[in-house]
Amino acid sequence: MAKKGNSGENRSRSSMPVLIIAGLCCFFYVLGAWQRSGFGKGDRIADLVNRQTDCSILSNLNYETHHGNGVGIDDSEEVNEIKPCDDDYIDYTPCQDQNRAMKFPRENMIYRERHCPPEEEKLRCLVPAPAGYVTPFPWPKSRDYVPFANAPHKSLTVEKAVQNWIQYEGNVFRFPGGGTQFPEGADAYIDELATVIPFDNGMVRTALDTGCGVASWGAYLLKKNVIAMSLAPRDSHDAQVQFALERGVPAVIGVLGSIKLPYPSSAFDMAHCSRCLIPWVANGGMYMMEVDRVLRPGGYWVLSGPPINWKNSFKSWNRTEEELDEEQRKIEEIANLLCWEKKHEKGEIAIWRKRENYEYCRYQDSQPTVCETTRDGNVWYKKMEACVTPYPEVSEPDKVAGGAWKPFPDRLNTVPFRISSRSIPGVSAETYKEDNRSWKKHVNAYRRINKFIDSGRYRNIMDMNAGLGSFAAALESAKLWVMNVMPTIAEKDTLGVIYERGLIGIYHDWCEAFSTYPRTYDLIHANAVFSLYKNKCDPIDILLEMDRILRPEGAVIFRDEEDVLIKVRKLVRGMRWNTKMVDHEDGPLASEKVLFAVKKYWVAGENNSTSSQ
């Protein structure tokens, strides 16, 4: 029921949705306006906004739903206030904790893989931001500048000083766009790759960058409308993935080690290694076979740096001629075994292309061991094997396995081959189209409430339960990107569909911490996440993980059943979040509701209350 009062008694029920939207727009406008920005200035402009914007409606609105089973939040109920973690945990990555990692074998990089804390060791506290934390610069300025306070780690500026990775200037880091293998800049390097790889016609859209450093390759590739999933371990180069995400570039903590990469088969249009130090010939070529698994038929693999062109470079690499000659010979042998076609070798760059189907490969003399066929999603914590994943079947020898490539952005809304070929039970072309229509409607409703969605304020966005990727498709813009997460317990595995659409994503189990640093996402979308994980793990652990990866003053949109959201809202009252609940855009009779939240700004050393009003 609406609260009674002079305006509440006289206002008609039909006007309430309009007022709720207007009030929430104001809510987000003010919260966005006083975010810290610039070169650590910590400026606040809320007073100016208040003078220019009539926000008096906020005090009169009741943001509870106005119907239903009468279940609400009793303000007299005790709030479980969650305390801040110690300041030592500012950069805490639970499943890549450095102290825990050292207890595991170094063989095959096992110690750099995910090792999550057991239940009794989980931190149930709020990870603080470093003192002086400011809102990142908007894209594309963020590509080149990161506030020092947000990631106060200078080691890379010393270790990579001559390689043009990163420079420290005053109170910001500057990223000149250089790299170990592209001292003349990422643009020149990408232009050379473009002489072989069709970047400019939209045919190549998704890329995997293994051993990405600070992700300058992925950052500059975005100018070609190519989106890269940048991958690097948390190692002695302490903050490389953190820098990538602060720059607004997709990245996750990860390594080619002993378990399969958390991506579906036939996902990426290309893969890239620029002096990534991965031992490609180890374990019978297992790592090249894993790259082959995640590459689409017709996809490209780029290897630059050792051992390519070793005859002219071996002295600067401080390695023997014999060692490098043997390494390149074995790489060529494995590539031939995989039936890759070598398209280019010039200087220290070599490019291979995976065949469009297996017909040509049937007639080669040596045949690799073939992996047992498994569904796409069966990779979570599964051991990597030295075997080749079978191509999808083709009806004719000249067909592309897995469907002909389509250019981006056309492929964003075209019915993907996995759906048109009925590879996903229960998902048809019509259900796909209806899903697109529904999420366009949902996202339009979000935009009416949070005006910042299309403004560039939210660069790094996560969809925790991505489905067919239609939320990300409805948002598609050069101002933002979406990490589409496919829960490992989802009823239908549709991550391959998401990649076919020219989007990126990853498998993950939300009972564990995500493979990223704190404060790396601007907006998180949680559609039916808490219904999905009901009785699977403690919801407070999921919420604390959301808080860890969300930036101060970042936003969350929960979409779920009303009773679920009421419980979620009660939990986040003790997490320094502001929340507002609204009806489904179809009206108050829909059982599904939407809960909007904004994380308050606070940093290490502050002692303010966690309770949210």
From TrEMBL:
Record carries keyword Transmembrane: yes
Pfam families, sorted: Methyltransf_29 (PF03141)
Membrane topology of the entry: Single-pass type II membrane protein; Single-pass membrane protein
Compartment(s) of residence: Endomembrane system; Golgi apparatus membrane; Membrane
This protein's UniProt keywords: Glycoprotein, Golgi apparatus, Membrane, Methyltransferase, Signal-anchor, Transferase, Transmembrane, Transmembrane helix
Any one GO CC term of the record: trans-Golgi network
Family: Belongs to the methyltransferase superfamily.
Name recorded for this polypeptide: Methyltransferase
